[in-house]
Design brief:
The structure is a single chain. This protein is of the alpha+beta class. It has a single domain (5-207), classed as 3-Layer(aba) Sandwich (Aminopeptidase), CATH 3.40.630. The chain contains 7 helices and 8 strands; from the N terminus they run E-H-H-H-E-E-H-E-H-E-H-E-H-E-E. Helix 2 (18-29) packs across helix 3. The longest helix is centred in the N-terminal third of the chain and has 15 residues, at 36-50. The two termini are 30 Å apart. The relative contact order is 0.17.
Length: 211
């Protein structure tokens, strides 16, 4: 199989290549029959909002076209992202968010035919390697919320397969499960989930950035 190249996109480049990234989204998540257009439009709407956030950064994987993507941005200082956190949010997490020192890994996806090649791992490493933040967070769908039961179809590399596969990948990458976000917050930035899910809790994972 052809070599995969990673490249970083500026905010402007991400907007220019949004259609190619949306194609990866549809292919990676494989929405329910007849829902592909809705899923694609929903993703494009979220991406349009996400690129406006402070610290937006994106990595894509290419080989005769875009086959994978990872992107994120700073968690808003207002702390809105944590508004549905189930439990008491530790003071240090509140302080890191309020000071703009928390980065959200908002999306990670790889086309099925290119999975199990370590592409997701490379995308995350490259995205975070030069990150100037003290905490990285991500939300994934919960395995119990996935219509396939949370394990079938998974890639084992956290790259757009099932929530269970995403959790396994985060553990392998040295992340820690931190808690659960309620359904009002998680769907906008939770990956490893079925497209079009409008109400679903998400598992929160955290780690210190790679150096």
């Amino acid at each position: 199989m052809a070599e995969v190249y990673l490249r970083r996109l500026s905010r402007w480049q991400a907007e220019q290549q949004r259609d190619a990234v949306a194609d990866v989204y549809v292919g990676a998540y494989r929405g329910a029959a007849g829902a592909e257009h809705r899923d694609r439009q929903g993703f494009l709407h979220r991406l349009e909002q996400h690129v406006q956030h402070t610290g937006f950064d994106m990595m894509v994987a290419d080989t005769a076209g875009t086959v994978g993507c990872a992107y994120g941005f700073r968690v808003p200082r207002t702390g809105e992202w944590w508004s549905d956190f189930q439990g008491e949010l530790p003071t240090d997490i509140e302080e890191l968010t309020a000071s703009g020192r928390t980065f959200l890994l908002a999306e990670l996806m790889v086309l099925p035919v290119h999975r199990r090649r370590g592409i997701a791992t490379r995308l995350v490493e490259r995205l975070l390697i030069r990150l100037d933040a003290d905490l990285v967070v991500a939300a994934t769908g919960r395995a119990t919320d996935h219509p396939s039961g949370g394990s079938s179809g998974g890639s084992g590399d956290g790259d757009g397969g099932s929530p269970g596969a995403a959790a396994e990948a985060f553990r392998a990458w040295g992340w820690s499960r931190f808690g659960v976000l309620g359904p009002h917050t998680a769907p906008d930035t939770a990956f490893g989930r079925a497209p079009g899910a409008d109400s679903m809790a998400g598992e929160v994972w955290i780690r210190r950035p790679l150096r």
